[in-house]
């Protein structure tokens, strides 16, 4: 498919796309003055080349009319306006990924841009990771499977009885990497459970609150439901700082 | 020029959709001929075309297959209410195709009303397959059971069904004897066992029977005895107190099932009952133990006897030792799926590592398809796998912790996955995980020329990564990306590529509202759907990245069944340019 492009369109692209591709790093309020002249030349050059041929062959025009021409600015950092408060602590991989970077400066003088981030990837991590575990939709296991396959293995029994389920549950403490396990069979109420868990991580029970993940994968506040319900649906535990 | 009858006869040998599509492009008369004799229609994205357009082109269709939501809906990334409603299609095809025989739906919202229409509209209806669908209840199933006199296949795969009662099964009339395949594994409610038994007894052509959890192990032998012709059997909950009589009857019933080739089910396994299946192991070509939470020795004992196994689905409880046994015993293995027993936790309790996969790749020369969840991987393992199995067509690796590097060298896994795409030249599907930089995408763009579907998560450094993929992967049709630092540039620079693909999904990336709008404006052949549930979304500036964007090619323009958190960008009259 050929997008027929006139020079009028090319100009429109300048104004509306507002690419921040300028070898000069000084900010200017007008969009078009920041426009990389090389970019413009390449674009119309390609276009005029195509005009020489009478047939527009659909097959080989993948590169003909992109909305951006890649080659002019990929990886050439001097052509990119780097976000003002990006921190380059030895992380050479960081690049600005925003086409509209200069617009942000127009809006607020670059005081608080979006996102207030150190590096793009770290923040993406925070966006989806919530409290540091339980990333939404990760690992990619269907819900029907997640519901069934929890780590409540039957213990090996030599004979008799069907399945005696282990009642050990994993518990994480916010900010502490190593998880612990607790045998819920030993507890009949939150009054004994919470202090036990808090002690495991060297905390006082008054400084923590207990949350748990139920069979649906939802995280809930323990204590909101009766103990019996909690015991029947709990899959994992997490202690959080109050 | 061939007479029509000859052409029609020739076309009757063309069964694949792509072949038929190609034939229809040869010339006008072939197009006309082909469209009149096309019996099966496959629509990979229900929003890519209007039902009326399909009906107008193909008047004699007997089988319709539709897909709705994007793949990442399986992992709860598509909010409820997004769309994928089959109702408009059902209404149209009920009117247009009274002799329709088959409906297959995947990831669509199917209501009871839809099922009722299906039940009453098609006199020769035979096959209903609903995969990962939702929106209906057991009442809808009852309508199908009661009215579809010629039903052969009722296959509910991992659907979310509102369970009003198990009584639906009893709606199959006594005169109903045509059943060939029944898969009710995803249902939770108990059906009347006597109704089930009678149904099985009067269905001489029943080849597939997949029960749900509620059918107790004690009753399995009864059913197996009623259906010695069964080829594909799924047990219910495979647990009970250990009783010799129950065990013996079950083992005996299995040993008489000479036609059994596929086994599944095995929820809540009591290991002592597993040996009951030993007598059929050597017959099996497909075995799904992925709900069997039992340790490696039990699983290993089973697989060691499955000499003819082609497909194995199992939990990571099988461990490296079990997979080593697979590599030695299952020489005909084509497909391996290893699911995580505990997908939530970062700790490693289970001794399944990359080594298990390496052994299977070494020992099973026909291995083509892999889905593997594990906690660690190395470049050298990936390189070995790629060299052992250059015939891989589907390679999906999920290292459970995001961004985990090569556990030996601590480097990214670029080189390993690069080796996969370089050596496995027929690779059509790839899912990656672990620590990956832009480099891996360069390898993919360079080598993965047959890649049809690519899934990326927590990978890459910059737009260059996405650019490599979009510009290099000639055969790419489905691309799904989450949590990668890919933004506007690569997307806009490769806009025309998107029209050659079925769809692109990007969530938690860096694609801005403005770029989405531009893309929607400039590309009338694409719907650019921004899926964003933030409350203040209408007041966000254009440079802000969207939460999720789903871009797909369509000939039917924008859809009008969107919820408020979905915006189809760039289609408003106000937004459109005046190109003079």
TrEMBL record, chain B:
Molecular functions per Gene Ontology: auxin binding
Compartments where found: Nucleus
Keywords of the record: Auxin signaling pathway, Developmental protein, Nucleus, Ubl conjugation pathway
GO terms for biological process, alphabetical: auxin-activated signaling pathway; pollen maturation; SCF-dependent proteasomal ubiquitin-dependent protein catabolic process
Entry-linked CDD domains: F-box_AtTIR1-like
F-box domain ranges (all copies): 2-43
InterPro entries: COI1_F-box, F-box-like_dom_sf, F-box_dom, Leu-rich_rpt_Cys-con_subtyp, LRR_dom_sf, Transp_inhibit
Pathway participation: Protein modification; protein ubiquitination
Main subcellular location of this protein, as a coarse class: nucleus
Domain of life according to the entry: Eukaryota
Keyword Nucleus assigned: yes
Keyword Lipid biosynthesis recorded: no
GO CC list: nucleus; SCF ubiquitin ligase complex
Name this protein carries in UniProt: F-box domain, leucine-rich repeat domain superfamily, F-box-like domain superfamily
């Amino acid at each position: 498919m050929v997008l027929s492009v006139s020079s009028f369109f090319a100009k429109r692209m300048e104004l509306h796309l507002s690419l921040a591709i300028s070898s000069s790093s000084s900010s200017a309020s007008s969009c078009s003055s920041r426009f990389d002249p090389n970019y413009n030349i390449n674009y119309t050059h390609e276009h005029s080349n195509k005009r020489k041929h009478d047939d527009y062959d659909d097959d080989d025009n993948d590169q003909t009319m992109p909305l951006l021409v890649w080659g002019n600015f990929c990886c050439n950092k001097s052509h990119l306006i780097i976000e003002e408060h990006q921190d380059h602590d030895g992380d050479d991989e960081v690049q600005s990924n925003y086409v509209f970077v200069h617009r942000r400066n127009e809006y607020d003088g670059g005081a608080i841009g979006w996102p207030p981030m150190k590096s793009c990837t770290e923040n993406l991590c925070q966006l989806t990771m919530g409290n540091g575990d339980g990333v939404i939709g990760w690992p990619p296991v269907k819900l029907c499977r997640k519901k069934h396959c929890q780590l409540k293995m039957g213990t090996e029994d030599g004979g008799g009885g069907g399945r005696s389920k282990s009642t050990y549950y994993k518990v994480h403490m916010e900010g502490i990497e190593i998880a612990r396990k607790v045998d819920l069979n030993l507890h009949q109420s939150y009054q004994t459970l919470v202090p036990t868990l808090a002690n495991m991580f060297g905390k006082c029970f008054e400084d923590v609150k207990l949350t748990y993940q139920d069979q649906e994968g939802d995280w809930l506040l323990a204590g909101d439901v009766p103990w019996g319900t909690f015991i029947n649906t709990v899959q994992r535990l997490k202690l959080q700082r109050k | 020029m061939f007479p029509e009858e000859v052409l029609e006869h020739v076309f009757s040998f063309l069964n694949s959709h792509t072949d038929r599509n190609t034939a229809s492009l040869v010339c006008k008369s072939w197009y006309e001929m082909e469209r009149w004799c096309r019996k099966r229609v496959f629509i990979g994205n229900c929003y890519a075309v209007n039902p009326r357009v399909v009906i107008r082109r193909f008047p004699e269709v007997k089988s319709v297959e539709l897909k709705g939501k994007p793949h990442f809906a399986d992992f709860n990334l598509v909010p409820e209410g997004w769309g994928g409603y089959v109702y408009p299609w059902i209404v149209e095809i009920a009117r247009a195709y009274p002799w329709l025989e088959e409906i297959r739906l995947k990831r669509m919202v199917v209501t009871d009303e839809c099922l009722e229409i299906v039940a009453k509209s098609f006199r020769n209806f035979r096959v209903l397959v609903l995969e990962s669908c939702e929106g209906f209840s057991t009442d809808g199933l009852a309508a199908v059971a009661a009215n579809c006199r010629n039903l052969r296949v009722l296959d509910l795969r991992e659907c979310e069904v509102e369970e009003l009662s198990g009584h639906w099964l009893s709606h199959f009339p006594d005169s109903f004897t045509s059943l060939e395949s029944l898969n009710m594994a995803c249902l939770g409610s108990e059906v009347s066992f006597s109704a089930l038994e009678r149904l099985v007894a009067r269905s001489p052509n029943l080849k597939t029977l997949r029960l749900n959890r509620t059918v107790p192990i004690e009753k399995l032998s009864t059913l197996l005895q009623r259906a010695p012709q069964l080829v594909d059997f799924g047990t219910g909950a495979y647990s009970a107190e250990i009783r010799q009589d129950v065990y013996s009857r079950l083992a005996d019933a299995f040993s008489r099932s000479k036609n059994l080739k596929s086994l599944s089910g095995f929820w809540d396994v009591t290991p002592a009952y597993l040996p009951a299946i030993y007598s059929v192991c050597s017959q099996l070509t497909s075995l799904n133990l992925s709900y069997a939470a039992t340790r490696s020795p039990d699983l290993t004992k089973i697989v060691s006897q499955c000499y003819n196994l082609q497909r194995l689905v199992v939990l990571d409880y099988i461990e490296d030792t079990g997979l080593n046994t697979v590599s030695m015993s299952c020489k005909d293995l084509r497909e391996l799926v290893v699911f995580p027993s505990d997908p939530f936790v970062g700790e490693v309790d289970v001794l399944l590592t990359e080594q298990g996969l390496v052994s299977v790749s070494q020992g099973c020369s026909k291995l083509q398809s892999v889905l593997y969840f594990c906690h660690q991987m190395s470049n050298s393992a990936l390189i070995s796998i790629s060299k052992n199995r250059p015939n891989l067509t589907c390679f999906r690796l999920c290292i459970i912790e995001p961004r985990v590097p090569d556990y030996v060298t601590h480097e990214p896994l670029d080189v390993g996955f690069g080796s996969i795409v370089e050596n496995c030249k027929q690779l059509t599907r790839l899912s990656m995980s672990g620590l990956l930089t832009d480099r891996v995408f360069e390898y993919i763009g360079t080598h993965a020329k047959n890649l049809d579907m690519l899934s990326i998560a927590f990978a890459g450094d910059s737009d260059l990564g996405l650019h490599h993929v979009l510009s290099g992967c000639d055969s790419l049709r489905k691309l799904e990306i989450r949590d990668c630092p890919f933004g506007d540039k690569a997307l806009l620079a490769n806009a025309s590529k998107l029209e050659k693909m079925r769809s692109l999904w990007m969530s938690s990336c860096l694609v801005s509202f403005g770029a989405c709008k531009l893309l929607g404006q400039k590309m009338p052949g694409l719907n650019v759907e921004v899926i964003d549930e933030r409350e203040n979304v209408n007041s966000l500036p254009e440079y802000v990245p969207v939460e999720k964007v789903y871009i797909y090619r369509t000939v039917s323009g924008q859809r009008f069944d969107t919820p408020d958190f979905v915006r189809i960008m760039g289609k408003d009259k106000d937004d459109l340019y005046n190109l003079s």
